[in-house]
Design brief:
The chain is α/β, with parallel strands linked by helices and 299 residues long. The chain has a domain of 106 residues: Divalent-metal-dependent TIM barrel enzymes (TIM Barrel). Helices cover 39% and strands 12% of the residues. The strands form 2 sheets. An 8-stranded parallel β-sheet has the order 6-5-4-3-2-1-10-7. The chain has a two-stranded antiparallel ribbon with strand order 8-9. Helix 4 links the parallel strand 3 and strand 4. The radius of gyration is 18 Å and the shape is globular.
Length: 299
């Protein structure tokens, strides 16, 4: 698959505080909530959604993403729409965990993803991220699992598409789709009429791939992205705020800007014990990096 960039469109003015000569950009960047520890692990983790949404809105990001299970917790309390309205921060997407390797559990997994997708759509989200299931990578047999993985991706993608949501593969380290070769095999074999590409660029780099090259090769299928940097350091599971690592973020964003279809971009950083910055501070650092590239934020 070859990529030929289309002519990039520029906005007329640059955001305040950008470096002289940096072009303004058209993509309105959001932020995921896991940086605040918002995982689907019970009431305590779900409660962090409020802090995440408030901080993300305070910094002027355009939207947020979280696990639909967190949305369901707040929906059950009748409080989610109020949180969204109060902070004027729309939901863009939800991260949907799946089981792709066990064909006997596929029906159950698809049913669960449909429920998650309905929750995303109920609150105005437009994209369901398909997350592969974790596996023991040592000794993992790709060939033995390949057909189940591709069939599972097709079924989950079709289910979300039937709900009117965009959807795409989100490869991840420690899962059944991690390496460069696995990503290429899947994206060249699956039903890409419904399954698009929704990579985590930091995870690609950590998994041994050249993240910018992978994005380039699948740019026509790119619809959603977790924008994450990777340094291999001791904090944040080796990740870091944007601009402090090894991922060629500028090249990736340049390609996303020129993509033939609109691309959602969500900043993300995994939390970790004894992290040197608060979630708000890491998001501020990433925002400053993006401003230098010409990105605008809500005032």
């Amino acid at each position: 698959m070859r990529f030929q960039p289309s002519r990039r469109e520029f906005l007329g003015t640059a955001a305040a505080g950008v470096l002289l000569g940096a072009p303004a950009r058209k993509i309105q960047i959001g932020h995921t909530c896991i940086t605040w520890g918002t995982f689907p692990r019970g009431p305590e983790a779900s409660a962090t959604l409020e802090n995440a949404v408030k901080d993300i809105a305070k910094l002027g990001f355009w939207s947020f993403e979280t696990f639909p299970e967190n949305l369901a917790d707040w929906d059950a309390k009748g409080a989610l729409q109020g949180l969204i309205d109060q902070n004027k921060l729309p939901l863009k997407s939800g991260y949907c965990r799946t089981n792709l390797t066990d064909a006997s559990k596929r029906k159950e997994s698809v049913t669960t993803v449909i429920q998650l997708g309905r929750m995303i759509k109920k609150y105005g989200g437009t994209f369901g991220v398909i997350a592969p299931n974790s596996v023991k990578r040592e000794g993992f047999d790709w060939k033995a699992n390949r057909s189940n993985i591709i069939a599972g991706l097709n079924d989950h993608a079709m289910a979300l598409a039937d709900l009117g949501l965009g959807t795409g593969l989100h490869q991840h380290t420690g899962t059944c789709i991690e390496t460069r070769d696995e990503v290429y095999d899947v994206m060249e074999s699956a039903n890409t009429k419904v399954l698009k590409f929704a990579p985590d660029v930091g995870q690609l780099q950590k998994g041994g791939a050249d993240a910018a090259k992978v994005v380039k090769d699948f740019l026509p299928l790119l619809r959603h992205m977790h924008l994450k940097d990777w340094s291999g350091g001791e904090h944040y599971v080796g990740y870091c705020p944007l601009g402090m690592g090894k991922v060629d973020l500028k090249a990736i964003l340049d390609m996303a800007e020129s993509a033939p279809n609109p691309v959602n971009v969500m900043v993300e950083l995994d939390p970790s014990p004894k992290q040197p910055m608060t979630p708000l501070e890491t998001a501020q650092t990433s925002k400053a990096y993006l401003q230098k590239l010409g990105y605008q934020f809500k005032s």
